[in-house]
Design brief:
Blueprint: H1 3-9, H2 34-44, H3 51-58, H4 69-79, H5 82-87, H6 90-95, H7 100-123, H8 130-140, E1 149-154, E2 160-166, H9 174-189, E3 194-200, H10 207-210, H11 215-227, E4 231-239, E5 242-245
Parallel strand pairs: 3-4
Antiparallel strand pairs: 1-2, 1-3, 4-5
Amino acid sequence: MSFSDMNLSMSGSAPNSHSDGTLPFASTGPYGHRKRMRERVIARGASVLADYELLEMMLFFGIPRGDTKPLAKALINQFGSFAEVLSAPVAALKDAGMNSDSIATLRLSSLAARRLGGAEVRERPHLGNWEALLGYFDTALEGAVPGQLRVLFLDNKNRLLADEAVCGTSSQGRETQREAADILRRALEVHATALILIRLCTETAMPEKVIGLDEPLARELMRAGGFLAITLHDVFALHGGSWASLKQLRRL
């Protein structure tokens, strides 16, 4: 009796079968091979993998040879989902036929996902109010290059998605349109819905004098961003502890 036959024959039906008695996978076995799976991930990215395919490739590390697809499908059949497999008790995984190396792989993957999730929360500060924003200026921008223009990309809850330097030549006309297009293209890539621009003044420049230089870019971002549902919150010029804002000056 094969592993998949053994798991699917217990108690007549699996505990996580559909309401009509069918399982998520009508067939568990075997198709394809490891080389083709790796080539697919390299060519198209891991996001194209179904849950059972991701589990199948994770099992490669604990099962050096053989087709792991039947085991991956049988595990999801038995536990109900990819997430449930990763969180299943060690004893249950052993009873399902997994070896220690495979269980260790799943445990490490689950731990890595939790730590990454926690890091994402820590690294995505909420910048939805003045206190948080000014606090970010004081800490995150310390030591930044004078004269640089930075863009804060925010999600729809004003959480920081990315903080990146851009060219920002303070030009007008076609060059301004190109710079705005580059910023908006990047916003779409990181799924941002709002922007904040920050000009870091040089030692000899004062914020209230510098702030107007980025006004043409700001207006182009507002115009073009409106078509993409991307909002420009404000543009700042910073020098030490002093700053100026286009919105505060009623120029946005």
